[in-house]
Amino acid sequence: MIDFSTIFSIAIRAIKANKMRSILTSLGIIIGVAAVIVMLAIGNGAQVTIQNEMKSMGTNLIMIRSGTSTSGGQRMGHGSQPTMKAGDGNAIEEKIEGISLAAPVLNDAGQIVYGNANWSTSIVGTDNRYFQIKDWSLAYGRYFSQTDITSAGKVAILGTTVVKELFGDVDPLGKTIRVKGIPFTVIGVTTSRGQSGPGMDQDDMIYIPLSTAQKKVTGISFPDMVNMIMLQAKTAQDTYTSQDAIKALLRQRHNLGTNKDDDFVIMNLTQMMEMMETSTKVLTILLGSIASISLLVGGIGIMNIMLVSVTERTREIGIRMAIGAKSWDIRLQFLTEALVLSLIGGLIGVICGLIGVAVISFFSSFKAIVSIFYILLPFSFAGIVGLFFGFYPAYKASLLNPINALRYE
Amino acid sequence: MALIELKDIHKSYPLDGFDLEILKGITLKIEKGEFVAIMGPSGSGKSTLMNILGCLDTPSSGSYMLDGQAVQNLSADELAEIRNQKIGFVFQGFNLLSRTTALENVELPMVYSNTPSKLRQERAQKALTAVGLSERMHHMPNQLSGGQQQRVAIARAIVNEAPIIFADEPTGNLDTKMSVEIMQLFTELNEKMGRTIILVTHEEDIARYAKRIIKIVDGEINSDQRNKK
Ligand SMILES: Nc1ncnc2c1ncn2[C@@H]1O[C@H](COP(=O)(O)OP(=O)(O)OP(=O)(O)O)[C@@H](O)[C@H]1O
Ligand SMILES: [Mg+2]
Fold first, then answer.
1. What is the pTM of this model?
2. Cβ pair A5:B81 closer than 8 A
């Protein structure tokens, strides 16, 4: 049987003889491979992003917001009328078995001033449980003290973005800033957490004691008002099982009669994340199969052009046969040609795919992750497609009768 | 033992439900070292006979012993092997691979006999030198004259040391001067290198180079005689 380097150079020569046609033929494979690479990178990136977000939000998290909902907390029309109190959170933490921590959150936004510098940011009134639930440590400084919380101390913990904007390289600890005109002392700076999704900078925040927020910074419509309560369940299972008890307790505390709807919404973040994860997985599989179909179409393109090539080169096949080529020599020649054609397409596809991934990560905050496995997978798939669809033309070529082939014009 | 021994060879092609008989019982012996010309009117079956002799085709019936081996019932791959080892072809239309240098064309039979690349090149160069083309080894077929192309084809036919050369109207596409050159080359191969040469031709002038002339008429041998020079 004919040796590999010879058969390879025959294939390269044949492909070179029809450069344009070869490239057009490989286009299906190129697009297919590039699409598979981009899809896998995006899918993979999305999954990792969700997992990171889950971690930074805190594990086994439940959020309760004011608002009305009709059935099972799945419809979320929140924010209409504030109804939640910090006391609700404390009661849940105390009475509900599956819940370990409850952090009150009163949101506000406003301008922060230090010297000549000013910066608009989000203001979060809360207590130390907030950091505990988010498993968020301080880069330096201290958390709120008991006195800060009970006597509405004018102290603030800053996110790193705020520090950067207001202080630059100056050490912010102990400095006085003005939050909506009121002087606060900086007592701590959180570690940096970065983006938690498109346009959401987790470090662009300042934290003040809840009591201070309620009494001095934010106008509240009833005593002890909060916007949200963040709960941490003991286990992922508890995020599901404790929901009914929370609901019953809150209905009782809010004096809601049996004919009234809930005036709060319970959101199980674990459940939401799990759903998002499943849906990105489904999306990845879906897009991956679309990409695979285009690979398949590319394979059919290769089969088509190989059939043309066999017909065009009938005389060449006849010559080779007359001179002593056996059926497998002819088959291997055309199989190699199909394989080389699809692998060249695969290689160009890999390059295009990587460029695509780079462009996507450059122009959007969407994270795309490539791994060698996700490159080799579509590349070798292209090779398999080439072999598969190259076989029939190669087989057809090997069945030619040398006399008829030699006579072919 | 004769190099080629045909016994009652018949060949027919199916045509409109009937079998059209082209060769009607050819019996023939050709010894090693002969130079045979096959002549006959157009359509008489010369090429059909050549194809069977050259193991490109199999007879419908009859027996064919080539170099002591019965070949009438061999498979396509077995015939390919025999063509590669024992037979060299020279065609009217040259049948060189296009976009392939003279050297690589001549290497081709050895590609299929698995000769190592270096040895292949050496032998191909020798063969091309033998046909007087040492200066044209890296030319493509379309850069060569008809006579030169036919000489490349002859180099390809002799490179594997095949004992028999079949040539179906090798001068059919060449002018008189080139035809003479090619026929002189064949004579040389036959006389100096002992190759057996069997060629088909229409032209008396060409047939005159052979030592034996077989005339075929209507699928049968009409005459078979020594060439009187
Ligand atoms: N594959 C085939 N199917 C049917 N008929 C065929 C086939 N090959 C050859 N023939 C017929 O067989 C006859 C002999 O053909 P062949 O080519 O052997 O003639 P020839 O003697 O070489 O003629 P020429 O001198 O014109 O080359 C012709 O009538 C041809 O039509
Ligand atoms: Mg003929």
1. 0.76
2. no
